[in-house]
């Protein structure tokens, strides 16, 4: 299983090489095999007697973060969608993307996404899940911005990134709280401790944080605004990421955590309400769009809302319907996106106002679109899978406890939203394929797509029809396991087409179709209301102005302190350091002065100290370069004398040598440096300098004395004394530490010196461009 | 004596920082030199002063002064020397190129 997850990443390493020969073989051909093999690998798990599987590979065991993969029914459903749709999308992209595009980066991003998405749905460890989750955001960002020369692409990419990463970080917060409460990082482990979680004080906070992650990812109202802009991505990407898989990650998350939260009333209220609102808003907005992809984008938003709402209901019927609809939505929406891509490819436009009457030019595409759109609309025909899950959805809205107001309202919202779904589905099909054609005005002369491009949508539409005809084929061996993973109470039930005339769900379907047809036919008369309700613009405005404000404010703040003057930076850094350290010392009562255990004072040492102090202070007042070098030398020699006194022969010698060379170097250089000038500075800045430097010196002295006066830790030096000869084979302990125990440090030290030497040679020898000219 | 050495380290730090805050490159370099002296004395004092013999194993001696700070200082002295040398040459080159050694005049402009 772990190989399956990392296989896409592994292949991604070779994609840049393979893309070199893209003129001969389209890179997508190689890529196709990866999702296809993964699909074959996982498809064999389908069966009535499927049992969850677990695989673990250690990553950071000390923090409880491991690649802990857990394959149950829910994961299997998603894994098959990811690999199956993935294979079809890659196949489709071979014909969609011309060889002149940057195929290398496209497939690298796509494979990266695939691996990340597999990781999300298979990880049992919350932190690994989060890692993969963010990786899907990043690859989505890269894919939306694939045509990065387009301003809209960059805008859309940034928008999706900001919104989904905001949600991802909230989710991480929720995960951390959950981990602290339960003491485990495993989701299954958390499910085992439902009681602990449900009785926690932070329950609502955890729920909201995790739902923020799910809602942003799954484009739920009001975070849905990123999805329409994400349609700037190439159409295969929209079909894959933004309809079939990535946007369902939020659904997956809610489903995965359902066993934990389903007993909590706020879970029902928030998830159902947001889901229904999204469903209603999405389908209402879809009708108003003119870009085919925008119709599908809002349609996706609406359908995601519907699945989300069903998960919020949490009843056995609703959960089962949700799983069924996840599968169905992927088939019909995936194929519709591909069909849109075909239309765009063959006519040169996606504007529904310019299209029409394409049925005669593209009969195959039109047939496929017919099945796709009618399935999406939920037309009651026995060979459309969309109808089944829509009907199960209606049933689940009726099966809720009738106690509160919300549950009473839900069936009505469901019907209204479905009516709009019906309208935009019809609008899509009839607007594009029937009516008068404007072939002469199209950028390209329309013709049927090449067969290769049709393969993928044909397979998906076959899925629509087969699932429609034999819904129970996927029921017991597949969907049943998925639903059980979300709600263990789900019992097997046959899916069947005919519920009888009196079945309330069927009546709801009939109402949808009836009102839908009327609304569709009279569409021109009532679409005026869209001018009154300005649509999603308001949320986009909030986003845009927020972004702009953040930009201006942070630029304003940055400009205050990033003045370009090094001195200002030094003052700020040292001042902050001083304030933080001193206040920490005062708060924790760390300031201690003790005169115990102190070496005796001798006149020799004191006189050396006084000489050094005089030298150091003299550096402040000398005005001549030579004098400055000499006083600095006095300080250096003084320090080496102190080293000698304090029984450190090695450093005393080194200091002497280095000091001598330094002075020689200074003397060499100072001739070339300008003379020291009288310092011209205002009294104010002088005062600041004095305060900062004296404060810093004082702080260091206090830290030193406090550290010296406390005995919290035993020195570790005894170890070096004892093992110097036995381990290092040397009598000079300092030398043994340097070349043996800390040999690597010394190696790096030599490296640093080497780099410095090279830089010095470069600075002296190389002439600048100015001189060269 | 430790306290006196720590006060000395404090004085070195203070003078170093004061020099660092100046505008002329040469003074800034001197500041870094003083800063490393201060740091070395600080580290040395952390291992206590004048306890035992120099840390070279000798028969019959069991009490040695702490070798660890000395090893750290030794590394630091060499690195500081490298930095000082580099800074000096950098200052020399900067002055040659820009005809000034004043940090306020070396700020660059808003386009950079």
Distance between the termini of chain A: 62 Å
The number of E-state strands of chain B comes to 0
Biggest chain-to-chain interface with counts? A-B, 97 and 85 residues
Proportion of residues in β-strands of chain A: under 5%
> What portion of residues of chain A is helical?
over 70%
Helix content of chain B: 55-70%
- Strand/helix succession of chain B: HHH
Structural class of chain A: mainly alpha
Instruction: Give the oligomer, counting copies of the same chain as homo and different chains as hetero.
Output: heterodimer
Number of domains of chain B: 1
List keywords for this structure.
heterodimer, A: 773 residues, mainly alpha, two-stranded antiparallel ribbon, 33 helices, B: 112 residues, Helix Hairpins, 3 helices, elongated
Q: How would you describe what is shown here?
A:
The complex is a heterodimer of chains A (773) and B (112). Chain A is mostly helical and 773 residues long. Among the domains of chain A are: 267-527, no CATH class; 530-562; 570-717, no CATH class; 718-773, no CATH class. Chain A is built from 33 helices and 2 strands. Chain A has a two-stranded antiparallel sheet with strand order 1-2. In chain A, helix 15 (316-347) packs across helix 20 and helix 16 runs antiparallel to helix 18 (405-433). The longest helix of chain A is centred in the N-terminal third of the chain and has 32 residues, at 151-182. Chain A starts with a helix and ends with a helix. Chain B has a single domain (2-53, 63-103), classed as Helix Hairpins (Orthogonal Bundle). Chain B is 65% helix and 0% strand. In chain B, helix 1 packs antiparallel against helix 2 and helix 2 packs antiparallel against helix 3. Chain B is mainly alpha-helical and 112 residues long. The termini of chain B are far apart. The chains are: A mainly alpha (773), B mainly alpha (112). At the A-B interface, helix 25, helix 26, helix 27, helix 28 and helix 29 of A face helix 1, helix 2 and helix 3 of B.
